[in-house]
Amino acid sequence: xxxxxxxxxxxxxxxxxxxxxxxxxxxxxxxxxxxxxxxxxxxxxxxxxxxxxxxxxxxxxxxxxxxxxxxxxxxxxxxxxxxxxxxxxxxxxxxxxxxxxxxxxxxxxxxxxxxxxxxxxxxxxxxxxxxxxxxxxxxxxxxxxxxxxxxxxxxxx
Amino acid sequence: xxxxxxxxxxxxxxxxxxxxxxxxxxxxxxxxxxxxxxxxxxxxxxxxxxxxxxxxxxxxxxxxxxxxxxxxxxxxxxxxxxxxxxxxxxxxxxxxxxxxxxxxxxxxxxxxxxxxxxxxxxxxxxxxxxxxxxxxxxxxxxxxxxxxxxxxxxxxx
Amino acid sequence: xxxxxxxxxxxxxxxxxxxxxxxxxxxxxxxxxxxxxxxxxxxxxxxxxxxxxxxxxxxxxxxxxxxxxx
Amino acid sequence: xxxxxxxxxxxxxxxxxxxxxxxxxxxxxxxxxxxxxxxxxxxxxxxxxxxxxxxxxxxxxxxxxxxxxx
Lengths: 157, 157, 70, 70
Prior knowledge:
- The complex is a heterotetramer, with 2 copies of chain A (about 160 residues) and 2 copies of chain C (about 70 residues).
- Chain A is α+β, with helices and mostly antiparallel strands and about 160 residues long.
- Chain A has 4 helices and 8 strands, in the order E-H-E-E-H-E-E-E-H-E-E-H.
- A 4-stranded mixed beta sheet of chain A has the order 1-4-6-2, sandwiched between helices. Chain A has a 4-stranded antiparallel beta sheet with strand order 5-3-7-8.
- Chain A is globular and about 45 Å long.
- Chain C is mostly beta strands and about 70 residues long.
- Chain C has no helices and 7 strands.
């Protein structure tokens, strides 16, 4: 079974992608994670520097896609999956647009949950993406968060 | 925030449902679980009594939807969610058709993962569904599995 | 004056819905096999205990076997 | 005869791509701030150590700051 791993330069439709993916023959249970560009000011409880007008993800072609493919292969070897999809946008995105879609199909729900969780915890740190946000007309680079390191450490690899 | 909880008598399109759900304003990260009727014979490694021709889910209206709504409320009180969808089919379904779709939107990925996992672990045991499969022209009731009890026990409630 | 008994899941194979006279459940001749340690009862949508249960006019009593896994 | 240096993420704010002569990296006048303890290097797509690195004709050396979280 090969994973469907893509770096996408253009916006994609996550509903349509999941619709096709769920038509796989051995897809009894499908877990997916969709990450989208957050709009600013939507969270009444937080005080942020400004609302996000755009997000840019840069990559380095010789490293980024091979790293995503290697991550997908590790997930396929670790869990019994009937299908695996890992799509990631690069370039400039606006609030509400999808950034990443990961989906795993499995006969047993737990396998699919863990595989998607694992890939999300590793995508941020193992793959090569650099992110910056446009706020108040200025681009700001996003540095790694401690939480990402902690998420990664859960898996012991 | 109200959860979108539905008992559906007719087939639904999970891709379209997730497409609408992902348009929620505070949906930075969305985790979903889709359960579909398994086709028989798709798993080369297993020897089963026969292939599943159809699946029927029966419910008891005075209990089933209220139990689903109460479960959704518990998830909303336990995690910080921007949206929650719990759709469940009843009636007769054929292989490949969706049975259940659960989706949670959250600013923090971990909240959405745990909420969907929690709801799936509890839907089977706390809600009132009775399932039977048509194999070789005969209906067979599905009894509870030990794994479902173990999944439920993980949450300590 | 009547109450209604309904049987869910595999219990529906033993009996369709029954109309019975109001009064103590203990006085009703139930189809064999519909009561058991793992069968729960709901009176008008609320889970109840079988012991001492009395049916009133218009009541619906549901017999609920264990729900399915998987 | 040349090698190419590319700078990713926030390092791209410090310098665009540079064309340099082949030879030891230590002999190249790098833009200030592009080397540091958290910056990794990839030579033609393979992670390498800066120590002792020698650039050959046609090489591409990428300077990679820590990747973003979130």
